[in-house]
Amino acid sequence: VDVGLVVVHSIWGVVTGCDAGEGNGLNGVEVSLDIDTEALTYSAITRSRSLTEDGQFFFQYLPATDGYTVTVT
Known about the structure:
The protein is about 0% helix and about 45% strand. The protein is mostly beta strands. Strands 3-2-5 form a three-stranded antiparallel beta sheet, with no helix packed on it.
């Protein structure tokens, strides 16, 4: 049996359209997450949502590593 332990984390934030997170949250904005390294290649897309009506986005269960790029379109 070959078993490995992976530490996972989440990446989340709020889309506001303003510097330093000021302003009201914007819902329905496309947010993408990408990583392309020797050890890991992954891509995901979500939209900021109105769960709390403040433009939050959330990517969960990601391997803990450097190199992720978050892009707001």
